[in-house]
Amino acid sequence: ASSSSITPSSSTTTIASKKKSLVFLGSPQVSATVLDALFNASAAPSSSFEVTAIVTQPPSRRDRGRKVMPSPVAQYALDRGFPSDLIFTPERAGEETFLSNLRALQPELCITAAYGNILPTKFLNIPPLGTVNIHPSLLPLYRGAAPVQRALQDGVKETGVSLAFTVRALDAGPVIARERVEVDDQIKAPDLLALLFSEGVPIMLFDDRSKLLICKLPSIFDGSAKVNADPQDDSKVTLAPKARISPEESWLSFDEEALILHNKVRAFAGWPGTRAKVLVIDDESSNNHNILELKIITTRVGSNDKIRDNDVHDIAFIKDALVFPCGGRTDLEVLEVQLPGKKVTSAAAFWNGLRGYGKNVISDSSSVSVLQSIEPTSLFHPGKAAENVQDSKTTRVLS
């Protein structure tokens, strides 16, 4: 892929006279699904456009080997045989050399899908038909960089994809079309993001009922989409900032209700994840204990009222789940966990591993400040005394 300092070759200045020039901007894997749809649509005999350039994030270090690798969009384009000198990777979209190269292409329209860079006015002024963004929310809801995460955190039952013109204000442009998608109560952020882009963009694009990108391109090219686009109602705006999503926000506080924690686990799957610290105490000596940091991978809201007969901080292993008592007399069932440096494991395997060492676990929210400075955290401690609950083991907090 070229950097913004490389001047386009002669092939970049030769634009097919019968087809309109479209530049695509995107970076992650979900963006590659949109690019794939554009490539396929542009190859159709009746197509009125062609993808003349791609703009994406610069190569970065990824995966365990920390090798410098092109963005998923750049890699996909190269695999499709797209010319490498037409793939631009500026650090910022306002770089003069990059903008000069873009002007040389004379694009009539730019399409963005999770590009990850702010587009300045001097960029937006280049394509005469404007820049159109694919945003994974029902605008004006969840404007910002983390619409899927924030929607899941709020526990929404419905979300969708919006096709909107890009203006300087973030995600505030007129909306060309929206596609609604129901949200399953177990789906996680990476899966929902992929679903929104895959079902909302490339798969349904070729369905006559679709209101999105490919079906709307003719109206975008003839100018009618801009005339008919729906201005957003600023009184209904909600924001989805990514800046606040950090490792500090990922800690679970079991004083909150289980549904809130379950939605947080779903929302923060991928990055930054959700975590809890647990205290593992040796059966034979309450002074012998280990503190483990667990990444909470998969959860569901429980309905195990019987364990409420025990102390409020009791933890039970019931069937396939570790059951954490939460605020509001609710229970969070944890199905999968991950220890640092280890693979994801089932709750049953984690529990059995502890018991194999003769160790038990208790929950004690009052001991948070003793064990960890980063609040909140949960302690987890099955003691010696156990009683049967639905063919499971539950244990009483040692006090």
From TrEMBL:
Q: Which InterPro entries does the UniProt record give?
A: Fmt, Formyl_trans_C, Formyl_trans_C_sf, Formyl_transf_N, Formyl_transf_N_sf, Formyl_transferase-like_C_sf, Met-tRNA-FMT_C, Met-tRNA-FMT_N
- A Pfam family (short name) is Formyl_trans_N
- On whether Protein biosynthesis is a keyword of this UniProt record, the answer is yes
Q: Which GO terms describe its molecular function?
A: methionyl-tRNA formyltransferase activity
Can you name a GO cellular component term?
mitochondrion
Q: Which ranges carry the Formyl transferase C-terminal domain?
A: 244-354
Membrane-crossing segments per the record: none
Q: Which residues form the Formyl transferase N-terminal domain?
A: 32-186
Q: Which UniProt keywords apply?
A: Protein biosynthesis, Transferase
- EC annotation? 2.1.2.9
Q: What is the uppermost EC class here?
A: transferase
Q: Which family does it belong to?
A: Belongs to the Fmt family.
Report the HAMAP family cross-referenced here.
Answer: Formyl_trans (MF_00182)
Could you identify this protein by its name?
A: Methionyl-tRNA formyltransferase, mitochondrial
Originating species: Gossypium laxum
